[in-house]
Amino acid sequence: MNEDTLATVDLFSSLxxxxxxxxxxxxxxxxxxxGTKLFAQGDSGSGLYILKSGKxxxxxxxxxxxxxxxxxxxxxxxxxxxxxxxxxxPRSATVTAVEDVTALLLPVWEFRGILKAHPxxxxxxxxxxxxxxxxxxSHTAD
Length: 142
Description:
Blueprint: H1 2-7, H2 17-25, E1 28-32, E2 37-39, E3 47-53, E4 55-60, E5 69-75, E6 79-80, E7 94-97, E8 101-107, H3 108-117, H4 119-141
């Protein structure tokens, strides 16, 4: 079930089953063949992806003529693109399927509509983001 997939995302860890089901109803399952770009650096962010199966490579281009440099590999059960849910900035990296991939996409426009209709979900997500920020800050203070 898609709510079980969403529950694996750290950002959604504080949501209860009913809230996860609300998000899951707006999610779309997508498949990509190996070698396919899910999105490119500079694209507008369309939403959060959670891999159900397969593996993707995340790469960045740091200059106009530089070749993409792989910065991470993500596999089943992992998520990427969550910042697209929260800001209107362009994608900061390119994501390419290394293997055939099945992913769950939570579109940004659906997500924002849910937050407007369910402010309790928004409050839980703010608390989750605050915890993540505190964790990052405590690691940089060491």
